[in-house]
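Trying the structure run again after the queue cleared.
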Amino acid sequence: MKENNLPLNGIRILDLTRVLAGPFCTMILADLGAEVIKIEKPGIGDDSRNFPPFVNNESAYYILLNRGKKSIVLNLKHQKGKEIFLELVKKSDVIVENFKPGTMEKLGIGYEVLNKINPKIICASISAFGQYGPYKDRPGYDLISQGMGGIMSITGWPDSPPTKAGTAIADISAALFCCIGILAALRARELTGVGQKIDIAMTDCIVAINEAYNEKYLIKGEIPKRIGNRYEYIYPYDTFKTKDGWVIIGVGNDEIWKRFCKAIGKEELIHDKNFNTNEKRVKNYKLLEPIINEWTSKRNINEIISYLLKYDIPCGPVYTIADACEDPHIAKAREMVISINQPKIGEIKIINCPIKMFPFLPKVKEPAPLLGQHTYKILKELLKLSDEELSKLKNEGVIEYFDY
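Done. Tokens:
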């Protein structure tokens, strides 16, 4: 497939983001075909260039989240740097930033300024608490949003302290919601010719993904608690101990329940008054859990999965990260682990884009950029700056470019 068939071909994005939430969003947009110009600060660039793990002194963290982008170094605190940025805005479709609210305005490049220069511009902001509201000026990180969004209160076991999700779920969910907002704004612009301002708060996103747990409180006034791996609304839907680890079994309805009882040789449970409906199984899970554990604990994970799948029972192993990255379906057939040729390193494995579209399949177009790798080329070709002008700007500390 030709690269110009990618869904976002022709869309130019100015990426002012750093670390995780913003770069994850623009990473997806780059995989979908957008030209993403990452604007980095002089000297060190994105903070995540210094995050482990490292390969040949290059950050694999940075490489993963910034593959397929172009890097220019531009000093936005310098008047000439702002002027260059505004010229780039005239030729772009989307701006994404994850500064503390008010920073863009302090720099003199807030939405009102950008909209006057380019009424079609879409400006997306990601922050901990959003661009308005009493908490907007608070500094924040993923863990704070997880805590204040409520997800830590329902993650873990009844006797454990509040527990964060294993990954930075506030950052990632904000990245995904921001990406959705940008795609919707691009569509709206096709219809109206007008750009939009998008305001994504990480804490809002955590509240949103708490789904029915919110409704339990809002409708019934009950505060959800930590219940381990058990699902509050379906049972059995849990992890169970085996001879060599843990297995997940999900009995999502009464028909699956009947098949499951037959599979484990407990057909008498099908019509048991304690278990014959999902509502009763949820209520009486403490009676049912040891029955299932007694069956699983005598068997190995692979044995259980192979056997239950014959009865069409949803089940699966609890993988380590290594298991997931080596699984033939995930890593190979679904191509979730791929190799790229990264400058200064050579071949390196990274995680691929999970969006599968046919025939215009998203893909990793290029490796992650070196710091300022594209400054010279972009400013010369896109803004038509001369070598003399570029050299002067470099000497004045407005831009940086290197002979890589």
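The CA atoms of residues 101 and 131 lie 6 Å apart. Worth checking whether this holds up in the mutant runs.
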